[in-house]
Specification:
Chains A, B: Keywords: DNA-binding, Transcription, Transcription regulation. Chains A, B: This is LacI family transcriptional regulator. Chains A, B: It holds the Pfam family Peripla_BP_1. Chains A, B: It comes from Microbacterium murale. The structure is a homodimer. Helices cover 45% and strands 17% of the residues of chain A. Chain A has 13 helices and twelve strands. By secondary structure, chain A is α/β, with parallel strands linked by helices. The mean pLDDT of chain A is 92. Chain A has a six-stranded parallel sheet with strand order 2-1-3-4-5-11, sandwiched between helices. A six-stranded mixed sheet of chain A has the order 7-6-8-9-10-12, sandwiched between helices. The termini of chain A are far apart. The longest helix of chain A has 17 residues. Chain A folds into three domains: 43 residues, lambda repressor-like DNA-binding domains (434 Repressor (Amino-terminal Domain), Orthogonal Bundle); 129 residues, 3-Layer(aba) Sandwich (Rossmann fold); 132 residues, Rossmann fold (3-Layer(aba) Sandwich), CATH 3.40.50. In chain A, α1 packs across α2, α1 packs across α3 and α8 packs parallel to α9. In chain A, 52% of the residues are buried. At the A-B interface, α4, α5, β2, α6 and α12 of A face α4, α5, β2, α6 and α12 of B. Chain A binds a DNA duplex through α2 and α4.
Amino acid sequence: MTTIYDVAKHAGVSPATVSRVFNGTNVSAEKVAAVREAAELLKFTPNRTARSLRLQSSEVIALVIPDIENPYFTEMARGVEDAASEAGYSVVLCNSDSQTEKEATYLGIAVAEHMSGVIIAPASEKTDLTPVLSTGRPVVVVDRGTGYDVDGVVMANRVAGVAATQALIDAGYRRIAYIGGPEQIDTAVERAEGWRSVVSASEPAFDTDALERFATFRVEGGREAMQELLALPHPPDAVVAGNNLIGVGAIQVLTERGLTPPQIGVAVIGSLPFTTLSPTAVTVVRLPARHMGTTAAKMLLERIRGDKQPARTVVLRNEVQVASALR
Amino acid sequence: MTTIYDVAKHAGVSPATVSRVFNGTNVSAEKVAAVREAAELLKFTPNRTARSLRLQSSEVIALVIPDIENPYFTEMARGVEDAASEAGYSVVLCNSDSQTEKEATYLGIAVAEHMSGVIIAPASEKTDLTPVLSTGRPVVVVDRGTGYDVDGVVMANRVAGVAATQALIDAGYRRIAYIGGPEQIDTAVERAEGWRSVVSASEPAFDTDALERFATFRVEGGREAMQELLALPHPPDAVVAGNNLIGVGAIQVLTERGLTPPQIGVAVIGSLPFTTLSPTAVTVVRLPARHMGTTAAKMLLERIRGDKQPARTVVLRNEVQVASALR
DNA sequence: GTGAAAGCGCTAACAT
DNA sequence: ATGTTAGCGCTTTCAC
């Protein structure tokens, strides 16, 4: 490994000058040239570990997500990466697998590795951010809320729930069920509220409890809940899926039973990037995941650069893609 | 930030002893207790940057993939993460976006950050591994081959191509087209060879050139190629998709035109994790992506621990899930 | 504009 | 078994 000293020797300057050349401070043109040439020749790459030990910070940000296999989060990761790499930062992707302990481990690593900041989609409301906040590092919370006074980027969840349900009502469906995520997760709760408000308004006697199901935010969760709903004495004629994977699971079950949408109405909150459905059969409330990622990254970078304004929360609007095929 | 010196002072020992306690060497029971207590009290976390500067290595491995939004690669990432975190290593996920320059940047970062090793699914055959190999760090190449003498884990691509095509033949299809990936990528070429060998054997006069298409390994690539094939004067009665995303694109186009499988036979090389298709309509040759990830991680960890045996390449068998609905 | 030297937090000889 | 100390590669005062 070639160091700043090797380069200095070859260029006939001091190590300090080499450092200056690589950090853009006042150095005479000739010395700059000499240093660059020597660096080229010796294939010198600055040692980031040494640099970050000295600077007490590294140009890396941590992105902690609960499910690396969910396209919603990878799309977001993509957005974070775009914004970060444009600013010369790299992104470490950490998969908490929805486990608070794993999440805590990664947050610990983030500080122990001197990372500049963290973007996190919390695994639950138990997420403890103090280890990183106490070091003064900025945190941006995405997708979900937390009790901490930090920047956040969230989706307009209630609005998404309303839009999904309303599209189904407009298409003529009446018994609209809802399959949401875990009861403790606030995004899930907000989306459910949107659904509940629309169905209750449409029919005052609507028995929301009978048609609401809580699932995991996974394909399997959607499958199980859909099966339960279909087994009901008086099954629904439509369903709102609380996230993309639940939507996939629900549609799989319907397809297997020959109840292809729009025979039963289906609206999904979240995009379905790899489905093979006709786009006219299902209403999709697209959540701008990639945009959420870039927004979060930009906010974090501002904080890293020393921005001290009070914490902000950005709420992202979503775009509704209504099924055109009605039953 | 509390350091080893703070802990040493509180515990009434030397910094070296604190270090020893955290690295499991001979320290008397009393001192261990004193150090642990002080560390607890002061919320001490070892500084990984300093540690890796000193050790010239960090317990981090880099995983470089060409498309973070492809479930095939995220599934693989999941496997890598499982094996690595079990061994106390963390994984930095880098998205090269199929660009050789981005890939080179990340490889540079991997060495500049003293990462212990890298697992890479190369963006192309131009990938230059020398910057990392020359530092003595181990590399495991996954999914695709390279010209380097390093460990690798690949799928049985030719076999997969044969299996996909044979399933279609067995189901009675005769004009079987193939939509593959970019011509320069060896996995794509091998899978195509499998297809070609089966169709040529089935009918000596088979005009393979007319029915072979090269696409990008993306949904859009599959869509375009499928459209071209359908516009042919004498279109195919079945198609083999060279990867999961191409399969999604092809099936989307077919569905939009009302040609739902198995009206046209479809076989896909790679799993379709988020499709809503009836599983009986499409033949899927599952590629064990997660297993590829864990295998690669284990091989890399062995090398990191000093294993010096000659380079190995592991070929992973795949599992065929034949469509049961025949036309 | 440039160099000398200290120090970021840790580990590993080397002494004791 | 434990302490002392040098040094990993870099940045940055402080002199000149």
